[in-house]
Automatic annotation (TrEMBL):
Belongs to the short-chain dehydrogenases/reductases (SDR) family. Keywords: NADP, Oxidoreductase. The gene is 5579259. Transmembrane segments: none annotated. This is C-factor. GO terms for molecular function: carbonyl reductase (NADPH) activity. The keyword Ribonucleoprotein does not apply. It comes from the Eukaryota. Gene3D superfamilies: NAD(P)-binding Rossmann-like Domain. The keyword Transcription regulation does not apply. GO terms for cellular component: cytoplasm. It holds the Pfam family adh_short.
Amino acid sequence: MNSILITGCNRGLGLGLIKSFLNLSAPPRHIIATCRNIQQAEELNSLGKQHSNLHILQIDLKDVDKYDQFVQEVEAIVQDNGLNVLFNNAGVSPKSTRLNFVKSDDLIETFVTNTVAPIMLTKAFVPLLKKAAEVNASAPMGPQKACVVNMSSILGSIGANSDGGLYAYRTSKAALNAATKSMSLDLKPNQIMAVALHPGWVRTDMGGSKAPLSIEQSCNRMVQTVMQLGEKHNGGFLQYDGKELPW
């Protein structure tokens, strides 16, 4: 893999993914990390000083009007090789859980970050993904060619929903899953694949302290899964360890 772009890397799973990709025996030539405020991303900045292949770019993903400029910044890094992997990781989870506490503002903000932004960012990066697929025409479908990974959640599964609640988060991730399936069909003629990936229940600000997985455990397995993706996984909803999940 020549290049990967991961959004939302100032902390949590995004930062963990950056560390896991950097620790590969053969890491990508370009690892591009985004955050809303570079000044506040102290650990990410520290990694940037240690690794010349880590590029840190600032963007507020809710500002869709800045996407074209952002794509140009990424193109300046990857140049004629295009972008191999777009990993839409950034997401939010509002505190309201039950129906009587749901607020329309929470629903709208969550959908913008968790669903609208990944769709629009993928749309903006299609030319660079197509370029990578063309440059690596002889490679099989997957991350060595061109791939979109959308960070989903088992909470977005309709089939696995036995607890109710979590309206904003569940519906935004279910919608992202639907978008991922459409991407897998729309982009396949260009040899670009798309998958939805569940990180597991992880000890993050979102997951809480009782979660069974550490960030490092989840991210290391996710990176292994991403690196092993192939055409048979296109349009799939996978767990961090590659297990298929119910829609």
